[in-house]
Amino acid sequence: MGQVVETGIGQAIMETVEGSAIRYSDYVFSPGNPWAGGCAWIEGEYVPAANARISIFDAGFGHSDVTYTVASVWHGNIFRLEEHVDRFLAGASRMRLEAPLSKHDIMAIMKECVSRSELREAYVNVSLTRGFGSKPGEKNNQALTSQLYAYSIPYLWVFNPAEQIHGVSAIIAREVRRAGANCIDPWIKNYQWGDLVRAGYEAQDRGARTAFLLDADGFVTEGPGFNICMVQAGRLLTPQRNVLPGITRKTALEIARSLGVEVELCDICARQLLAADEVFTTTTAGGVTPVVMVEGVPIGTGKVGPITTAIRDRYWALMDEPSDLIDSIDYRLDA
Ligand SMILES: Cc1ncc(COP(=O)(O)O)c(C=O)c1O
Hints:
Layout: E1 4-8, E2 11-14, E3 39-42, E4 45-48, H1 59-62, E5 66-74, E6 77-79, H2 81-94, H3 103-117, E7 122-132, E8 145-154, H4 161-166, E9 168-172, H5 194-205, E10 210-212, E11 222-223, E12 226-232, E13 235-239, H6 247-258, E14 263-266, H7 270-274, E15 278-283, E16 287-294, E17 297-298, H8 306-318, E18 326-328
Parallel strand pairs: 9-10, 9-16, 13-14
Antiparallel strand pairs: 1-2, 3-4, 3-8, 5-6, 5-7, 6-18, 7-8, 11-12, 12-13, 12-15, 15-16, 16-17
Helix pairs in contact: 6-8
């Protein structure tokens, strides 16, 4: 496990693992900045993350009537922001939720939260809820005003840097299946995490780090906060249905293709996954993580595989390389 280091107001970083491509920036916060270390945008105002509060009557809380996305900032660069906001707004439209702000304004608010927080490595969340009405507990959707919330806080890891270097173990959940697109549309990034949380506890009970979920037809889907990819005979395979179209997965597939690895979105059953040469997960909150054991069975050699390693290291290199994928945050340090 990576060593957690507290560095100041609300900021915790993981110690860089030896041989790792994952390195934090070295900087200090400006004294007297109330947003340093975490900034949120709630009901039209920027507030320190520690004071971020929303109404208990928001249908996003009561009915999970909400969609969201999480973008990441690494070395002061925000990654694929526009694609995150495009997916976010497309999901909102699928659930008939209208954003009160334009795409441009949403992107500007997310970047402003990062700038005020001064965080060079940040987890940047934007959520759109059905909102609340003038009457406490109002349930009539027509009487609700949708709300957009955003925040920038220190980078959160689904899998920490050490796990991304050394790999993790997983189970295939037996107690719970992933809700399918005919129940909760996984294409819309959502907080209906009942199945994912149950699977996470099952993994804990069975001594594994995380869980993969099958859908009702027995095909591999995703896990708590990540997509799943496998490598078999030099080809990269990943589930085509009942999963969120992850932006990190898209990046991993692009990297794979650039390395000459053939990629296919298809149905994958548990048996196929266990026979894979390599397995890895992808998520904004933690990049590319090798999975070296599933159901107690070593994957391939039981060691982190070469294709996973190449994709992981290239993914982190992209955070620094000037390209259309990154947008540098203006920290206005002299303001
Ligand atoms: C259920 C689920 N699948 C996949 C992902 C990965 O998506 P992305 O790479 O866009 O972060 C996430 C991220 O939070 C998730 O919650």
